[in-house]
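Look over this today:
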Amino acid sequence: MGSVTNTKGLRFAVVVARFNEIITNPLLEGALQTFRQYSVKEEDITVVKVPGSFEIPVVAQKLGKSGAYDAVLCIGAVIRGDTTHYDAVANSAASGVLNAGLSSGVPCVFGVLTCDDMEQAMNRAGGKSGNKGAEAALTAIEMASLFQQHLKK
C-alpha cells in the first residue's frame, strides 16, 4: 500500500504562493518535473497562484472539495524575520493544509518551506538539500495513487 504504480487518469492541483517567488518558482518547477517524470499529463495539472502561504489552505480546500482533483499540492515559503509573524503564518499554513485535506477527503500535501533564513530556503529549492517541491509532488502522486487503488469512494 502507498507505492507509486500508476498515474494514468490522476489529476492534480498545485496551489503556489507568489510571496518569496525566488523560492516558490523553483519549487514549482521541481514539482512539475516530477509530475512529468511519472507520466502525469500536462492537461491533468492545474496551477493556481495565491498571494502568500497564508492564503493556500482555503484555496486547497475549495479545490479538494471540487471533485476535480485526486490530490492538491501546496507550495510556499515562509522565512523567519524579526517578528512573530513567521510563527503565525507557518502554523496557520500547516494546520490549514491539514484541515483542507481532512475536510475535503482529498490528499492535500504540505510543500511549504518554513526556514530560518533565505539560505536555508534556497538550499531546499534546488540547492544542496535538493528540491522539496519535487519531493512534495512525489508525495502527492503516491497519495493519489493510494486513494485510487485502495480507498475509492
In short: The first strand starts at residue 12 and ends at 17. The radius of gyration is 15 Å.
